[in-house]
Amino acid sequence: MSEKKVSRVFSWTLMKQSLRSNMILTVIVLIIMCMMSVVISYASNLIGTSDTEDYSEAQADFYSYLYVLASYNDMAGTDLSYDDFAKGDDTEAYENAFNMMNQQADTDFSVEGFKKAADDLSGSEVGLDTYVKQFEYVYALGSVQGCFSGDPLEVDEMMTTMLEVMGVSTDLVENMSEMDASSMINQMYYTIMLILPLLVFIVIVGNALVVDQVDKGSMAYILSTPTKRSSVTFTQMCYMIFVPLILIAITCGVRMLAMNAFTGSVDVVQTLAMYGGLYLLVEALGSICYFASCFFNQSRYALGLGGGLNVWFFLASLLGMFGSEDMVNMGMGVEALGTFNNLTLIGLYDINALGTVGSGDVDTSFIWKLCVLAGIAIVLYIAGSLRFQKKDLPL
Length: 395
Known about the structure:
single chain; elongated; disordered N terminus
């Protein structure tokens, strides 16, 4: 009696069949997602470890020594330079220049100090030759005034003027320098790189679980056994709920392991929040495919509704990304395209808000958005199950 009661709710036989028939697709999607997680973790590490150290103090020290050499050359008629200093062994002339400045201005310039300033600045990704060249412009313009305005000419103003002549907005350059590259990578990773393989999975599987079997006639065989329609819908719904959960959970684990391996640290709470939001989004999208699969008796109609809507959501999300603040600030986006974020369920997956989880200032706006996604999934799963149990089947 207990076994009979269970069979009315859940069918292990049907679950095993679904797992076996979709195993290859599941494994392929999992491998793709795990590989992308490792790659994006490595890329994030490269960006995070790029030249973020402040070399302004080292640059100031280096320029001070260059100024001493330039002033000494003007006064003594010599041609001392950093290039000759770095290549030659004779430092007597440079010592004389530094001693003269020390006597006049009570400073402590020395050959050893010059070497140290150069060594400190050499850690920058910018070559020392480039710094020397910039100093030459600064030194030359430092004593020059505009022939019309009479104002002192400065390198910064010269660069701004040149950019304006070329039609490049200085605000654009400033916005690009302040752009958060990590935020852009997260946006692409979670809403494109992970969503795409999962979309392929839920569209194919959602169609195969119910309507494809009705269309091919195999559902007649399933229902000829003690398996009830309610058992079919509940079992296939469990597949659509738990298999994506397993895929996302494994990918989340791989991501955290990769981040820990590359950076030595991982924000567990924030990472779990990001993947948790991703799971709710996938379930909302998957419930559309499940509902279409239960509603129609032919695969082409179910694919048209479930697959078509999901493809639209993905394309609208891509267009909406080019209307995001980061893309607009880079000069690669159009603000008006941000409207597409309101025409896709993926727009409810707020990466920026979820990214604040675990910080001192959490943006809670993601909560109601995730609740909407969860509500959509619940309603469509229930509606699809009820529809399949009551509709006429071509058996």
